[in-house]
């Protein structure tokens, strides 16, 4: 167990260099209330030193069914809803642009705010039971957890519009095909695969992982000239670290393995 003042809706533990965080509200299909969002923010903002990757999963039959609608029923005023949305933004920013890569193990519902949460992670592993949906149109609301920014970058604006306007769902296979997940595995295999991927990620050079999380998305979003220049700077910074130099020597002196097919 990891004791950093998390709400009972989140369970965390450390396994070597991997932190395991689980949404633990199965009776609500792991719907995200404000306390859970604040707990996510606290967890990712205060990761223990030595943690090199995080695995995020959901307890029970679903990853996350989205926003707990009780949080937005009869708000005092519009400004309260704006602040509520910004709280989600701050929490998910700590995931996407935090200190370590995050791998999500998906199964069952990945709906609304649950899809927004998954989109803030870096690698998503889905089981056949996984389905994706954005039912905000049917609820009379709009995306509020950064989904209108992140999800179109995964699956495209037209498909996001389709999901929101029609209320249809994407199957696990469709999600993999469109970019909602990078991996599609068998039933019960998402969490073991996510752990295996996290362990592999944890063995990477720390500066390279940092660059992949922080530099790569900003380079991709910039104009080409700025992107090329930023890439050159990041390449020099990464290659100049003592860890990188040792890894390069190990490879040249045949102490490191070559790239092979597979995991």
From TrEMBL:
<protein>
    <submittedName>
        <fullName>Crotonase/enoyl-CoA hydratase family protein</fullName>
    </submittedName>
</protein>
<dbReference type="InterPro" id="IPR014748">
    <property type="entry name" value="Enoyl-CoA_hydra_C"/>
</dbReference>
<dbReference type="InterPro" id="IPR029045">
    <property type="entry name" value="ClpP/crotonase-like_dom_sf"/>
</dbReference>
<dbReference type="Pfam" id="PF00378">
    <property type="entry name" value="ECH_1"/>
</dbReference>
<keyword id="KW-0456">Lyase</keyword>
<dbReference type="InterPro" id="IPR001753">
    <property type="entry name" value="Enoyl-CoA_hydra/iso"/>
</dbReference>
<comment type="similarity">
    <text>Belongs to the enoyl-CoA hydratase/isomerase family.</text>
</comment>
